[in-house]
Amino acid sequence: MLIDNWKTSWKFYSSAAAILIGFLNGAIASNFYGLFKGWTVEQVAALNAVLVGLLIPALRAIKQHAEEKSKTSGSQAGFARPGLLLAMAATLLIGCGSMEALKPKSFDDQLAAATKTSTFVLKSTTVLLKAGKISKKDAQNVLEQSDLAMAGVTLAREIKATDPAGAETKLGAALKILMALDAYLTSKGATP
Amino acid sequence: MMTKEQLALQLLILALQNSDEIARLFAKGTTAEDLDALVKENADARKALQDAIDAA
């Protein structure tokens, strides 16, 4: 009886709509079922924005409805939890989508990621040096390590057509250097 | 002098920009022209760091 009442009430349809929108949002972001393959990041972001635009008013309406009901019945509505869980689920799915988007699909993608990471390391070091968080000697060392990594990236790009295995090895070694530098800079940026 | 929060924010922005640009490249597929542009950007960042080291 209670379930029947709940099912026929307005909040059931609102909740179902919110869950559907949350699922669709996550599905699009994570390219679930491959339905949105070939879409650009901007197209997916635009559709996500539209869906989130629908999701927020739906959750707001559910909350308002619950508040009105709790006023009349004097009971706790308890709608914050489903809303929070839904938001967490959507965030998780979107996070999975982001991880999917960050997967390299070609060797050139890997070269691009390594080069961008080296640039990120150099820019972060500049910021940390100017802020007095690392010494001149430390910064010089980071610069030299980055040069070493970029030499590996450049060589990997040059030999990728003639020696793919060698190129993979060179790129892997360069990435190890960059990840170590990134971890070092993160520790410097995080400590007061 | 930059506060700890300002520094953390600046580093976070750099990290987010980096991830965003990598995701965009992966989504469209990196080309030789993209790689050339990235190498140029890297060289500019290297020069900026070298200048900061020299000035320190």
Counted beta strands of chain B: 0
Largest sheet of chain A: none
Order of helices and strands of chain A: HHHHHHH
Give the low-confidence spans of chain A: none
Strand content of chain A: under 5%
Estimate percent helicity of chain A: over 70%
Which chain pair shows the most residues in contact? Answer: A-B, 46 and 37 residues
| Major sheet description of chain B | none
Distance between the termini of chain B: 14 Å
What's the rounded overall pLDDT mean of chain A? Answer: 72
Cα shape of chain B: flat
Q: What oligomeric state do the depicted chains represent? A: heterodimer
Overall description:
The complex is a heterodimer of chains A (192) and B (56). Chain A is mainly alpha-helical and 192 residues long. Chain A has 7 helices and no strands. In chain A, helix 2 packs parallel to helix 4 (80-101), helix 5 (107-130) packs antiparallel against helix 6 (136-159) and helix 5 runs parallel beside helix 7 (164-190). By secondary structure, chain B is an all-alpha fold. Chain B contains 2 helices and no strands. Chain B has helices at 4-28, 32-55. Chain B starts with a helix and ends with a helix. The mean pLDDT of chain B is 88. Classes of the chains: A mainly alpha (192), B mainly alpha (56). At the A-B interface, helix 5, helix 6 and helix 7 of A face helix 1 and helix 2 of B.
Short description:
The complex is a heterodimer of chains A (192) and B (56). By secondary structure, chain A is mainly alpha-helical.
Top keywords for this entry?
heterodimer; A: 192 residues; mainly alpha; B: 56 residues; 2 helices; flat
List the helices and strands and how they pair.
The complex is a heterodimer of chains A (192) and B (56).
Chain A: H1 2-8, H2 10-29, H3 41-73, H4 80-101, H5 107-130, H6 136-159, H7 164-190
Helix pairs in contact in A: 2-3, 2-4, 5-6, 5-7, 6-7
Chain B: H1 4-28, H2 32-55
